[in-house]
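Suppose a colleague, Dr. K., hands you the sequence of a protein chain of 209 amino acids and asks what its three-dimensional shape might be. Before reaching for any lab equipment, you can write down a predicted structure in token form. Begin with the sequence itself:
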Amino acid sequence: MGIKISALTETTTPTSVDMLPILTGGQTKKISQNNLHKTDTISELTSGAGVTVDGVLIKDSRISMNNISFIGASAYLGSAQNVNTGEVTKLNFDTEFHDVGGMFDTANKKFVVSAGNAGYYRITLTVNFGAGVDQKYYVAKIYYNNASVKDSFGLSSGTVGVTVVAIITKYLAENDYIEGYAYHNAGVAQGIDSGTIYSRLDIEKLGSA
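The predicted structure, expressed as tokens, is then:
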């Protein structure tokens, strides 16, 4: 729905010769109402195409939310996954929370940009290690076309779980793909928690180039 504008009506000036005070040049002067300009007011509900008044196209400056769509995906681990110490391990994001645009490949555990969807994307990888070994490093790694582009580190304290989040905004072209990896140096295998509230890969398109 557009903006409310009024039926084209003309406001006529009074015929009275009453004088009105006008501030001009720092001094107050009087001017006859007969010398005031006539005013046109417009009252019309504009459509998406707008309305033309005296050859001028007037349109609502607001953007219709009907023309804005979300594109992105969120996937998580359907079951817990072990990561061996000292090994960079791909995470098995095999279950979708949502996939608007159909670009998450659960069979190959990666997000692949389809034709017509190139643009800038915000990528968030959350890795939740269920338990920790004191004073060891835990890493979440975002991979772009089989190479790491963002590493985030967490240092454990005691044996409590460690959650590490990596975030990057990156331009993705058609057929580019994103994967999530994890790494640690705990000395023994560590479990990655499954479920929608734990380890997940969230990707959303921000806009085109």
